[in-house]
Design a protein that fits this description.
Layout lengths: L1 H23 L11 H8 L4 H9 L8 H14 L3 H27 L2 H13 L4 H5 L5 H22 L5 H13 L11 H14 L11 H17 L9 H16 L12 H6 L2 H25 L8 H15 L12 H22 L4 H47 L7 E7 L2 E2 L2 E2 L5 H8 L4 E6 L16 E5 L2 E4 L2
Parallel strand pairs: 1-4, 1-5
Antiparallel strand pairs: 2-3, 5-6
Length: 482
Amino acid sequence: MIRNKTILKKIFFILIPVSITIIFIPGFTNSPVADDWIVIQRNMNLTFPDILKLFTSTNFGWYRPIFELFIYLCSLCFKFQAIDYHVVILILYLFVLFLVGKISFLLTEESGIGFLSAFIFGILSIHSEPVLWISAANEILTAIFLLSSIYFYLVLRINSKKNFTYLFSLLFMVAALSTKETSAFFPLMIPLIEYFIINEKNKKFTLHKLIPVIPFLLIQIIYLVIRITAGFPYEISFHSLKVVYVLLYYLLVIVFSLPDNYGYLSSANLWLTEPLFPIIIILLSIVALSGYIWLFIKYSFKKHFTNHNNFIKLSICWMLLSVLPILSMVSGRTAFLASIGYSWIFSLFIFSIIKSIRNHSKKIKLVFATISAGLILINISVVQYRCHYWRLAGWTVKNVIHQLNDIVINIPRGEEIYIFGLPDHLNRAYTFRNAVSTINKIYYPDHKIKVWLDTELNKISKKNYLNKNSFIYQNGNLIKQE
């Protein structure tokens, strides 16, 4: 029996990363898109003083030196070959899965919950953007650092393995804060870990046990003071209606698998022209989740789920706190950290059902298997939908560059080229946003290319900007305007 369980664990350990890889690979292309161009270009030739400056000042209004350094190291080998970045990012994503599962195992001592949380996290459709967009990979790096910090802290506090584990935990937290601002909530998790997890294991809570928490909170205070003082590249505002909208967005994209491009206020036209897919996805998600809830209430309630009350509470706190830094914005990538807490909660939910029905009839097991297969297919369908558009975004950029190569041959050096209507994004798979000036600098330094994206056309009168080298983008082609 033990041998069978060991074999099964090894199968899952291989099957999970392989299946996740197969799911996301269709979104890979070999062309950078949107912000990727400027992010790669500005970090390609960093000198040692440049690297030091990354850590001592904000860059374009952000303080993300670790991410910039990551792009620099990748660019040394890959230049602008996006496919190689995608492979590295996917490997990092698989490592996040491992950490999600490892930590849930440490907190619950249930290997089943570990495997379930890793798999559930891996197939969440909301992860398409951070996995498939190079510029959003900072979410994945941040998650690695945060989860590593938790892991070393738990090793220290649960297993009493000191050595350098406490230092590693602090350093990984600092690395996360230096990767993206969404990690600012994390130091608040440390006292919660002490209260919910360490206190439960030691059965006695005293204030002196909070001493290890103090450095985390001090670092957070220092970070927030410095970061807020430095300012942000755009205005951050909060009001009740916006907060409600943001929370509703994250609920729909994480729990009900709504494709993230349908959640923006500017997506009204998309709902009018292509409403069927998101409606079907949400309805099927509601049916599947309702089925799980029925099984849980009938067979699991107050049996297995309550064995890990503190793990549930900690996971809920993670979800709620991780949303605080992103209450002023909506995007698929910013839901990444919150989805970790959701994966922990949902894995325990599913695990309790599995344990409760294993001695019941085949009919009940078949119902559970059908619901599970349906929910998996829902998320895979949405991931493939998003993969299609991210792949199309890469092809679109590559196609325009190919056409420009033929166009500039016949235009004398120094002349201006005007292009109207290049897409800012394809259903929120970004294409030419913040990309054209860098593409111009890299490929066409002898010409001046001025572009008005499709989102900007209503702000200008084209006739005022027409010249002999004017082109309009229509149906994938650059058409010369006479």
